[in-house]
UniProtKB/TrEMBL annotation:
Transmembrane segments: none annotated. Zn(2+) binds at residues 122, 188, 209. This is N-acetylglucosamine-6-phosphate deacetylase. Pfam families: Amidohydro_1 (PF01979). GO terms for molecular function: metal ion binding; N-acetylglucosamine-6-phosphate deacetylase activity. Its cofactor is a divalent metal cation. InterPro entries: Amidohydro-rel, GlcNAc_6-P_deAcase, Metal-dep_hydrolase_composite, Metal_Hydrolase. Substrate binds at residues 133, 212-213, 220, 244, 301-303. It catalyses: N-acetyl-D-glucosamine 6-phosphate + H2O = D-glucosamine 6-phosphate + acetate. Binds 1 divalent metal cation per subunit. The gene is nagA. The keyword Acetylation does not apply. Residues 49-374 form the Amidohydrolase-related domain.
Length: 380
């Protein structure tokens, strides 16, 4: 590849809107403002250029999970990269505390190498009433001492902890996380509206897969959903796979939170990028059928088989959301949440050259990460 590349003629989605016949200049690993005379020009007319996707909640893919070995973790990372995710936070599921501490050491090493953007602990501090696909016998109350163990185990790479703040120690744990610069995410929770407001006031800033694994919106007991949607400080995660959310629920969240406070996530498990079959989610067995992952025991939905390119296509073609709003929910908003907005999340000069090339049907035709093509470009 030439030292400098110009991608010319695309519909480029910038934070300010869509530029038709736009161009993105890549120099080394970054996006540049001007191109030298010897730059290679690639004609990408008829395509969209959008920032690389940022997934803050993802358990695995390609037959491997973030609870596995280093090789398995990298397999999952590569699988999602092929689908446009250039920044990825590895999520664990509820497991034995000693196992989580050990796994955090491994994940933090891969984060230091630049393969991961951090660690998200989903559980064990969650509600047995809303456990979803988490092992009930391994759940525990959010004791701040144990929360601190997970913060420390990530050696500066623990980015988010999902917890049920209504449990004993919950609010103190939210405060502790916030003090350490770790995102406190409200999820797998049975909290009331009032308890959720208290958690947000204590520092919680994320709704873990809003609507899923929490009490539904009721007119006399509005629950976590109303509190999380209403508060400007909260970013709401949404799993846009057509299974986890009715399209009307997605629309309601998008209208209410506005495009600036939504982060599309995959919550993907091992089967993402592969297909149906038997898999493990942490210690639990999962059957994937027609792309829907369910626990073998009990039938609870067990993560998704989603990739963010499919979430993008669905949001535009089925949900009919405006492309810039979808781009914000897939890139800028999660990047800001992670404190990485100076590096990734938009196609602006000086940032990492992380981008996705999509054709008119919103299918991936190229993925570039830090200036290197991971996929394609596949051009007619
Ligand atoms: Zn999850």
């Amino acid at each position: 590849m030439a030292p400098s590349t110009v991608l010319a003629g695309a519909r480029v989605v910038l934070p300010t809107g869509i530029v038709t016949d736009g161009r993105v200049i890549v120099e080394g690993t970054r996006i540049a403002t001007a191109s030298p005379a010897d730059a290679e020009v690639i004609d990408v007319r008829g395509h969209w250029l959008v920032p690389g996707f940022v997934d803050v909640h993802n358990h695995g893919g390609g037959g491997a999970s973030f609870s596995g070995t280093a090789d398995e973790i990298l397999t999952a990372v590569r699988t999602h990269r092929l689908h446009g995710t250039t920044t990825l936070v590895a999520s664990t599921v509820t497991d034995d505390m000693d196992f989580l501490v050990k796994q955090a050491g491994l994940l933090s090493e891969l984060a230091e190498q630049g393969d991961l953007a951090g660690i998200h602990f989903e559980g064990p501090f969650i509600s047995p009433c809303r456990k979803g696909a988490h092992s009930e016998e391994l759940l525990r109350d959010p004791d701040p001492e144990e929360v601190r163990r997970l913060i420390d185990a990530g050696r500066g790479r623990t980015r988010m902890v999902t917890l049920a703040a209504e449990l004993p120690g919950g609010i103190d744990s939210v405060r502790l996380l916030t003090e350490h610069g770790v995102i406190a995410a409200v999820g797998h929770t049975d909290a009331t509206y009032e308890q959720t407001v208290q958690a947000i006031d204590a520092g919680a800033t994320v709704a873990t897969h809003l609507f899923n694994a929490m009490p539904p919106l009721g007119h006399r007991s509005p629950g976590p959903v109303a509190a999380l949607l209403a508060d400007e400080r909260v970013t709401v995660e949404l799993i846009n796979d057509g299974t986890h959310l009715h399209p009307a629920a997605l629309e309601l969240a998008f209208r209410h939170a506005g495009a600036g406070r939504v982060a599309f996530i995959t919550d993907a498990m091992d089967a993402a990028g592969i297909g149906d079959g038997r898999y493990m989610l942490g210690p639990l067995e999962v059957e994937v059928s027609d792309g829907v992952a369910r626990l073998v025991q009990g039938g609870s939905i067990a993560g998704s088989t989603l990739t963010l390119d499919r979430a993008f296509k669905r949001a535009v073609t089925v949900d009919r959301l405006p492309v810039p709003d979808v781009v914000a929910a897939l890139s800028a908003n999660p990047a800001r949440l992670l404190g990485l907005a100076d590096r990734v999340g938009s196609l602006e000069p000086g940032k990492d050259a992380d981008l996705v090339l999509l054709d008119e049907d919103f299918d991936v035709k190229g993925v570039m990460r830090r200036g290197a093509w991971v996929v394609g470009p596949q051009l007619p």
